[in-house]
Design goal:
With 305 residues, the protein is an alpha+beta fold. Helix content is 34%, strand content 14%. The chain has 2 domains: 3-235, no CATH class; 243-300, no CATH class. A hairpin with a 2-residue loop joins β7 and β8. α3 (48-55) packs parallel to α9 (221-230). The longest helix has 14 residues, at 148-161.
Length: 305
């Protein structure tokens, strides 16, 4: 049995309930998106965008050496808890994304990158899904064929809080009517998303339907590399924010001075994805704080276009 089959069989055995009735074509209307920063430098010495264009595959963080969350021991333990005995070594491990049920133009989980791949619906057949990020040790998981428990958890979230995935609704029934419709306004989802764990790798020519990029990369070599993946690039609204607008109470008091220092260093009045990425590539860059800059940009930034 293949690794994807073992992972899916394990999850199906835990939560065998089928998907939501009356929502046929859900995974065609709500694709998986995989977010990434195209200008970060991988272990190979090439940027992510260069690597994608040259290799034609999307590599996991264990292969690239780039992480916006847990890497190494913590990630291995999370995966072992979710898929016991399925993954043994660093290669061939899951690729992480989000199910874009809300149709956001910045993807299902922009906290992980300024650009994203929109995957073909067939990829969902070898993906597992969790209600919440794997870092939280989610207790509700599913597959495309057995999505019932994840769906029920989302509806319960709406019934309890009045919203899920950034979509507010008076009732679960009215929330359902919002699912799958494309939106023009960014979702800014740092924490509220259905995580997708894709098993069996991602071949760009077979698995990617579209590439969506932050407009700060327009006219740069990153655009050329990304356009080579599918022939064209679609632009998200993007985010931009002045240094004085970075608050100290979201990610700590060190963040606003860093925003001001970066703006002064590069002679800009506003920070965007490209400026933050430029700072991240500097030798000795404070990567954790730079990650916080990106989080705040997602949460508070104005549309760049």
């Amino acid at each position: 049995m293949t690794v994807p089959a073992r992972a899916l069989d394990h999850v199906r055995a835990l939560f065998p309930a089928p998907g939501p009735a009356g929502l046929s074509g859900l995974f065609e209307r709500a694709p998986i998106t995989v977010s990434f920063h195209p200008d970060r430098v991988a272990a190979s010495g090439r940027t992510v965008a260069e690597s994608l264009a040259a290799e034609g595959v999307y590599r996991s963080q264990f292969e690239t050496g780039i992480s916006n969350g847990g890497l190494g021991g913590p990630r291995v333990s999370w995966e072992e808890q979710m898929f016991p005995g399925v993954y043994a070594g660093p290669l061939g491990r899951p690729v992480y994304g989000g199910l874009n049920l809300a149709g956001y133009p910045d993807g299902a989980s922009p906290r992980f990158g300024s650009c994203h791949l929109v995957l073909r619906s067939a990829v969902a057949e070898r993906a597992t899904f969790s209600h919440g990020d794997s870092v939280t040790s989610p207790t509700v998981v599913g597959t495309a064929a057995t999505f019932g428990a994840v769906w029920a958890a989302l509806l319960d979230e709406v019934a309890t809080t009045g919203w899920a995935l950034g979509l507010a609704a008076d009732s679960p029934d009215s929330w359902v009517s919002l699912v799958g419709a494309p939106r023009s306004v960014a979702g800014r989802a740092l924490d509220s998303y259905v995580e997708a764990q894709i098993h069996g790798g991602l071949a760009l020519s077979d698995d990617v339907a579209a590439v969506v990029a932050d407009p700060s990369f327009r006219g740069t070599p990153y655009e050329r590399h990304l356009a080579s993946l599918t022939g064209t690039v679609t632009w998200s609204p993007g985010f931009t924010l002045r240094p004085a607008e970075f608050p100290a109470d979201l990610r700590g008091p060190e963040v606003p001075p860093l925003a001001a220092e970066i703006a002064g260093r590069y002679g800009v009045t506003e920070l965007d994805a490209a400026v933050i990425g430029r700072a991240a590539r500097e030798p000795g860059a404070p990567l954790q704080l730079i990650k916080y800059l990106w989080h705040i940009l997602v949460l508070l930034g104005r549309p760049a276009c």
